[in-house]
Each structure stands twice: as structure tokens, then as C-alpha cells.
Amino acid sequence: MKSLPVLLLLAGLSAPALAQQLPVIRANATTVSIKDGRNFSKNVWTIEPATKPDIYITSAKKVVFYTDVDSISIQVKQDKPQDFYILLNGKDSALTRVQYQLPRLEMLKKAKKYNYADKREVPAFTYQSADDEVLKNIRREFKLDSIAGNGNEISQMINLMHWVHDIIRHDGNSNNPKLKNAVDIIAVCNKENRGVNCRMMATVLNECYLAMGFKSRFLTCMPKELKFDDCHVINMVYSTDKQKWLWMDPTFNAYVMNEKGELLGPGEVREKLISGQPLILNPDANWNRKNSSTKEQYLETYMAKNLYRLETPVASVYNAETGKWPAYVQLVPLDALNQESTKADSMMKNGYRYQVTNNPDLFWVKP
């Protein structure tokens, strides 16, 4: 416990806080490394004195914060947040709170119920024809026939996914290009030696699939909360051979299989995560060819968070989100926070509109 003179250095500290004498650690740099349970992340947290409290959410039993000069170990309590101060450069105090949250996989399991009898009207999904000149140009310009190869349908889909992963670097903090289509996204990445976020990578792969005659959509995978800092976008591509949708993720070079080695679609992956059935991640799944992905980290943690609500455009076309938001459909479980479609006034305000369904049969309908 720090002495009273040290605590008095903390700007704006109230009498009740003084009485509690919260722990204090020092920092000269604004970034903090965190060990969350067994997982260590370097420089993952930014000290923000203006945010009071700055809340760190965890499902672990213990969390350790490491500044450049100090550290603190917090025993996480499910029924009580744990507060402490970070004293930045000896003058700015950052009230920091460690707060427990149910593990994301457990949250997903509680969201298993859909309503197959939901008859709210959902527009028919459409897919741009590969005979469209703009898609024929993509096929020629990127030599997609050569990239896809001469193998079966699924091998071609995987080869195209690998190619997008290899030629585009993922950067979740990058600004979206003004023109959001495969040709311009790839050109900007090459010209500016930059990466793009997962949505742009999925946009490129989606247009390549359409150009090759594969029916596909990009799929925004979101957590339960309506306001969030992170979600993920992958692709769903329809296999006519298997008569099902398949999961393809160009950001992590990932597809998912069952114990028989059969490829699965997003709906199947979600169901198997909830029921605890076996899932296999392809062994070469990785992020930017730097960090390998594991089933536990990618599926059971990251995607378990992001498979709560799912959203996809009604029309799967070239240049779908350049200068506009098209119409979307959201599939949500019965305990989701949003059960209604966007209102007309909000649509007119920002152009973003979506229709909600609890019926997975309408969302995963075959093309």
C-alpha cells in the first residue's frame, strides 16, 4: 500500500478514495502490457487519465498489469470490480478498473435459441453475375483462373482465399480506402505499402469469388453489445458440390472442419461451438504470416465473441460499400439486445439500414 504523501499526488483524488487507499503503480510510458490469465499481450493497454474509470474487462481469475517501471497483480472477483491507480509521469492519475465478464463462449452458449417461426419479411439475397463486365475484368486482371487452379471447387475456393491473405497485409487500425472494391483496395495497398482491415480483405475475396462464378457474401460477425470496439468480417461462399455454405477468412487464412475433415459453414461452426462438438482449424491458419492461429484462440475466444450477431448485405455485388451503405440483414438470437429493424428516421439520418430476423433458415438460405 502506498503512503499518504504518494496518494496526495493523484490529481482530483476524493476523500472516499483516500479512505480506501487504492493501490498505486507508477508509469513513465503510456502503454501497458497485460498478462490475462495465461495470455500475455505486450503494450496492449493505453493509459488514459481522462477516462475515470478506465475499465479492463476479463474472464480470467488473475490479471497482471506491467508498466515500464512497475506492475500490479489483481485477483479478479466476479461480484466486485477491482480498482487501482496508475500514476503517469508522477502527476497524472488514471483510475483503472478490472471488471469480470462471463467468458465469451459461455455468453454464446446462452444465445443459442433462435426462432425458426419468425416470419418477418427478409428481402431475397442476390449475387452479381460473373458475366458482368466489371467482374470479368477482375478475373482477367488478377489471373484468377490460374490462382484458383484446376482442382475441385473447394480447392479453388481455398486457393483464392490463400491468395488474398498473401497479397494483402491486415491492419485493423488502417483507414478504409475511398474506393472499396478489389481493384482499388489492392492498388492502394501496393502503392502505399499499407494494410487494410478485415472488412476490406473480405470485400476483395468476395468480389474474386463472384468473378469466378461462386455465390458468396461477406459476413460481419459481431458481439452481443451494440456498441463495440472490435468485430470481425469473414466470407461465406456456397459450394454447389456440397450444397452448403463454407467459412473462409482471408484475414487469418482460416477455414474450419469437423472431425471428419469436412469443411463447415459459419452457421455450423456457431452451432458446434455452442454444443461443444469437435472443430478443427486448418493448420496453416495465421495472422500476416507472423503469428499462427489456434482453435482455442481463434474459435473459442475471438470468434465466440463475434458470432453472437451476424450481418450480411442483401445484394452481393462489386463496389457494394463505396460511398453508401447498402441494405443488410441481421441474424440475432432471441436474447439479443436489438430485436427490431432500424427505424425510417435513422435510415434517413445516416443511410445505414438493416432488417432483423431470428430465423436462421432465412439467413442461410441457399442461393
UniProtKB/TrEMBL annotation:
<keyword id="KW-0732">Signal</keyword>
<dbReference type="InterPro" id="IPR002931">
    <property type="entry name" value="Transglutaminase-like"/>
</dbReference>
<protein>
    <submittedName>
        <fullName>Transglutaminase-like superfamily protein</fullName>
    </submittedName>
</protein>
<dbReference type="Pfam" id="PF01841">
    <property type="entry name" value="Transglut_core"/>
</dbReference>
<feature type="signal peptide">
    <location>
        <begin position="1"/>
        <end position="19"/>
    </location>
</feature>
<dbReference type="InterPro" id="IPR038765">
    <property type="entry name" value="Papain-like_cys_pep_sf"/>
</dbReference>
<feature type="domain" description="Transglutaminase-like">
    <location>
        <begin position="147"/>
        <end position="250"/>
    </location>
</feature>
